[in-house]
């Protein structure tokens, strides 16, 4: 397509694209936006190497003028985006990008790939975290990412661990993710560790010798209650003599509700009331919630496949759509009409705001960029499909959601530390009504269009029909 | 765990690990093995950088002796594996790795990540390809990977495109995968291309001007039959005047069965009988098969999310298990017993063979490495669980499946070209009975254990029970 624009002499056509998604994944009521840092670093470093240009040359599809354009390619556009960790909803522009058609076309797939992936995994991690908490945002059970071996290749494991941390995970077993992003690394031993020693007890002792202050023992290699827990208690008593304690045990198979309760009883009887019980074994948010409802004595959850691949919903369907084109220094709104009404885009260069009532997110409003942001006066919102559904809000705080990240190719945004993003994401979740956070059949958050935008859309839809 | 082995003085313990999986993904009857090249290149280049060691040092978990071991880390083990593109079944060792416990423990997660991911996507692509073919292995419809924007980050898009090509895809829209692996790159324009021109016809003409010999036009931006197809025919007639032809049209929404048949009729009426119709829009193997059964006039299929994420089954559950330990120059078989009988491992250093009868794969046999391979004499195979189920085969060809890849840290295997791997995978599929290739409820291929291995396993299970 870039070559097509080049041949049509339209490289420098100024345009606006929106990146947004249409449907919340996994039956969730929202998405936790993530992947901005990766997208921004990509844009700021995007170049074509000589080797890449040589490859394109030998395809015999492109002329030399075009390859010359690629050789000097730099991203010179302007990006507005919401912060990583923001709770977002369908149709809201997550990134709004202005610039040369040539550049904005090139970056489409990479931006979508990064944002779709990280936002999906952050959202999935939030679902796990919400499921693990008997009382919302109470301390609840910690979730650890154990997904490396089942991730869809290396980047998915590393950026997936990052996104999972944003979404509420406490740690990862992926040391590379620890190295790149400073995520706390946690792990225990595998069954192969236990097997590789003459006996389970010797295996436990050897692990204790390596990590005396962080001894977590895998107790299900032979038999949890007849062998694993008694041997763990033996090692725990030995640790006691050194003035230390047994940090935890991990159960990775069998009935986790029954086994955890029995193990808790025996640990408590032996005086190990502070020793944590960690559960793993193909866990997902449904199983976590069910185990909690059954009174399982589980303090922390190791989650693998279901988290790192978002197993039941492994793709977020984010899209990247043209919304406006500059003609004589004016933005001309563009629309995509479709047989499928859900796929009709919102035209024009846009911004969006969130209304808070009593510090809870009440509704979001997408509006044209030139419209003034409501500032205290009563606002009447209406559903963009069923327009008779209206509500008026009066005592609200309003917040503009898009902020400048890159302006004319220059970074104007300081990328926050990962730990800050995670804290912000938690704050965001606290601002969302609990009905919207429900894991099944959540309340649908209001995302409305301003009257001006709605009217523009109707007009363009009409004129696009033939 | 590496640190634990170091502290226990067991770094140099010689061991054997098997990499295998237990359950075919996606309801399929087999897996197409892929990811070996990535695994091998990883092993041959694995090093700890100074920066990585500094990171590990500041965790305060490890002593300097251990960090010194890491600094000089090289993979010195021996790897046997099946070739990429081989059709494999549950419990068969796909890689068998011998070497120092220290090294073999480190590589577990990366090997699993690469092999699980690529084997999964190759298998999914094969399902698409089988669905698209009205007659098995007839030319059938081409499948193109359109998944980049929905891939689970960058590696998943690139190695996923590679695996999809092995599994039978004809091309990818991912130019980076073309660059790295020489996969044919194919694409058309997006809706945003059409939108960015004043009219659909002008957009079509501009695309034709860029790719006069490869003009494929997206016809569903406004209305397939009233606008897209008539405009495509107009451009096709213009191409005709230059002595060229219209290569194809793409339909990305609406009822693909109805629209493709109507579009075919109109293209044929206008003399464009050679113009291909390409379909896309959230396709998977079920939809492809249904559309073919409904007589859709579709020549090629662009598949995105369902392929690149293996949407309904996004992880292959490959595992990596200790099978033997060397003591005084002898391999002592090891077993993992589990509450779940499916999780009990096959002990010992093993190899496996495939029996062909009339050039079709008839059964596979896993055996101990020291056992002689059957060579013409009648062989009686029995089901390892329901041992009364037996069969005797006589006129067979036998093939040893594991071959040496790395010996004592040195590559002894020439990595085949990707195009060779793809051709081999197709040959492999032709050797599998069609009942086993069925997409739903396939015949279960026999994977049996030799009597010697079976008896060893029974003995070790008994002695492991307490």
TrEMBL record, chains A, B:
InterPro entries: Aldolase_TIM (IPR013785), N/Namide_PRibTrfase (IPR041525), NAPRTase_C (IPR041619), NAPRTase_N (IPR040727), Nic_PRibTrfase-Fam (IPR007229), Nic_PRibTrfase_pncB (IPR006405), Nicotinate_pribotase-like_C (IPR036068). Catalyzes the first step in the biosynthesis of NAD from nicotinic acid, the ATP-dependent synthesis of beta-nicotinate D-ribonucleotide from nicotinate and 5-phospho-D-ribose 1-phosphate. Residues 349-457 form the Nicotinate phosphoribosyltransferase C-terminal domain. Gene3D superfamilies: Aldolase class I (3.20.20.70), nicotinate phosphoribosyltransferase (3.20.140.10). It comes from Ferroacidibacillus organovorans. It is an enzyme of class 6 (ligase). This is Nicotinate phosphoribosyltransferase. Its EC number is 6.3.4.21.
């Amino acid at each position: 397509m870039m070559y097509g624009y080049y041949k049509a002499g339209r490289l420098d056509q100024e345009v606006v694209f929106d990146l947004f998604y249409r449907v919340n994944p996994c039956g969730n009521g929202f998405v936790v936006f993530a992947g901005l840092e990766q997208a921004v670093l990509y844009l700021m470093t995007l170049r074509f190497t000589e080797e890449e240009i040589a490859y394109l040359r030998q395809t015999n599809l492109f002329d030399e003028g075009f390859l010359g354009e690629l050789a000097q390619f730099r991203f010179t556009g302007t990006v507005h985006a919401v912060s990583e960790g923001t709770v977002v909803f369908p149709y809201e522009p997550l990134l709004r990008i202005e610039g040369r058609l040539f550049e904005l076309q090139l970056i489409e797939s990479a931006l979508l790939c990064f944002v779709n992936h990280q936002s999906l995994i952050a959202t999935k991690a939030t679902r796990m975290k919400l499921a693990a908490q008997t009382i919302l945002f109470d301390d609840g059970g910690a979730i650890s990412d154990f997904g490396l071996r089942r991730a869809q290749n290396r980047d998915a494991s590393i950026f997936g661990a990052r996104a999972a941390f944003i979404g509420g995970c406490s740690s990862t077993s992926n040391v590379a993710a620890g190295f790149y992003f400073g995520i706390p690394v946690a792990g225990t031993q595998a069954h192969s560790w236990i097997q590789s020693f003459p006996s389970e007890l010797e295996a436990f002792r050897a692990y204790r010798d390596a990590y005396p202050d962080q001894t977590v023992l895998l107790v299900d290699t032979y038999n949890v209650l007849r062998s694993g827990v008694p041997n763990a208690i033996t090692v725990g008593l030995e640790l006691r003599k050194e003035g230390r304690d047994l940090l935890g045990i991990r159960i990775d198979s069998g009935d986790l509700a029954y086994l955890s309760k029995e193990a808790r009883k025996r640990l408590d009887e032996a005086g190990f009331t502070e020793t944590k019980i960690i559960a793993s074994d193909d866990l997902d948010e449904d199983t976590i919630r069910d185990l909690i409802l059954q009174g399982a004595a589980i303090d922390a959850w190791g989650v693998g496949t279901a988290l790192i691949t978002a197993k039941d919903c492994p793709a977020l369907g984010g899209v990247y759509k043209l919304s406006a084109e500059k003609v004589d220094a004016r933005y001309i709104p563009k629309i995509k009409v479709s047989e499928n009404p859900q796929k009709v885009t919102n035209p024009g260069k846009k911004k969006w705001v969130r209304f808070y009532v009593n510090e809870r997110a009440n509704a979001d409003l997408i509006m044209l960029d030139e419209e003034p942001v409501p500032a205290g006066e009563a606002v009447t919102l209406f559903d963009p499909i069923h327009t008779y559904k209206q509500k008026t809000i009066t005592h609200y705080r309003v917040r503009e959601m898009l902020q400048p990240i890159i302006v004319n190719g220059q970074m104007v945004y300081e990328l926050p530390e990962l730990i800050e993003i995670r804290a912000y994401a938690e704050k965001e979740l606290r601002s969302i009504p609990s009905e919207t956070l429900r894991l099944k059949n959540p309340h649908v958050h209001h995302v409305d269009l301003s009257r001006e935008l709605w009217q523009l859309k109707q007009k363009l839809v009409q004129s696009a029909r033939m």
